[in-house]
Specification:
A hairpin with a 3-residue loop joins strand 3 and strand 4. This protein is about 45% helix and about 25% strand. The protein is an alpha+beta fold. It is built from 12 helices and 12 strands. The chain folds into 2 domains: about 190 residues, Sandwich (Jelly Rolls); about 110 residues, Homeodomain-like (Arc Repressor Mutant, subunit A). It is globular, with a radius of gyration of 21 Å.
């Protein structure tokens, strides 16, 4: 592959592609209804892949990088706020995925981002060992220069078409090395990082409340998982404080968020199972939905099809 462009509409398609092609295990929650219009253009430079991503809607990502390559990303354009661990990400911030460590970020499109993947072999040759906080401040001129170099490299590659000549491969490696040279300057905050760094961006207090509430939700200790009074009591805080934490961090309240989490879990299950092995009713009940007419309406509004249609198309 030299250059390839793919489009996705729903979170589950993106999750599968991200894991298979980038070695990143994502958990994506689609917070707004309707198609995400997610477009990924990948440009391959023999060990370095430039991933240009456009998407719409509000999305909560929780990623874990599998393997020992390097993956870095940053926002180029965004009409809505971008948050990491509950704090706003600015134009001088970039994110490096550390192997085995979860990254947390909220996107609000329409947006354009650039993610760069470097193979494990190249990382070893270059001796890169990024460490410290995944999200760090980078001098703005470095990110601007990296963007321009990657844009020129991608433009050159798209104009080449299908080619495998020695001259083409040499030029391709020259562009790759140019990208790596500029990328090395961008990565300096991670290369110089100590165990504690003033440039690290801490999680917000509201974000910590949201994660604590999610832990209670995932443990399943409460039969009424959308009972916000009970949830607030378990966390030792007022209902108002809990609502404010979710609204300021995710843009929606806790009841709506946990309903969406269950809706996403239902879709994953519907896609995984065969239509002869279960019914929509059984799966809906298993995920805490009792009003089947209501859940069918919510599901169709969010994902563009009914639960029955998803199950019929499952493998």
């Amino acid at each position: 592959m030299n250059s390839d462009c793919v489009r996705f509409e729903t979170f589950d398609e993106i999750e599968m592609f991200w894991f298979e092609t980038m070695g990143i295990s994502p958990s994506l929650t689609q917070l707004t209804a309707g198609p995400l219009n997610f477009e990924l253009r990948a440009e391959d430079f023999e060990g370095v892949t430039l991933n240009w991503v456009r998407s719409e809607g509000r999305q909560l990502w929780r990623d874990v990088l599998e393997g020992d390559g390097l993956h870095i990303g940053y926002m180029i354009e965004s009409e809505g706020a971008v948050l990491s661990s509950g704090l706003e990400v600015g134009p001088k911030d970039a994110l490096v995925w550390h192997p085995g460590q979860e990254t947390d970020y909220l996107l609000h499109g329409p947006l354009l981002s650039l993610e760069i993947s470097v193979s494990e072999d190249l990382v070893d040759v270059l001796g890169w060992t990024p460490r410290g906080a995944p999200l760090r401040r980078v001098p703005g001129e470095r990110l601007n220069r990296l963007t321009k170099v990657c844009q020129r490299a991608s433009r050159w590659l798209r104009l080449q078409g299908i080619s495998d000549s020695p001259e083409f491969r040499n030029q391709k490696r020259m562009w790759r090395d140019h990208v790596l040279e500029v990328l090395s300057e961008v990565l300096m905050p991670w290369m110089e990082a100590q165990s504690v760094s003033v440039s690290a961006i801490p999680a917000s207090r509201q974000h910590k409340i949201v994660r604590s509430a999610e832990t209670v939700f995932e443990l399943g200790e409460d039969d009424g998982q959308d009972d916000i009074d009970t949830l607030a009591g378990q966390l030792g805080m007022s209902k108002r404080k809990l609502y404010y934490a979710f609204q300021s961090t995710l843009g929606i309240g806790p009841r709506r968020y946990f309903e969406l989490r269950r809706l996403h879990a239902l879709r994953r299950e519907l896609k995984r199972l065969h239509k002869d092995d279960c019914t929509v009713t059984e799966l809906a009940h298993a995920h805490g939905f009792t009003q089947l007419g209501r859940v069918a309406g919510l599901y169709k509004t969010h994902f563009g099809e009914t639960p029955s249609e998803t199950l019929r198309r499952s493998v």
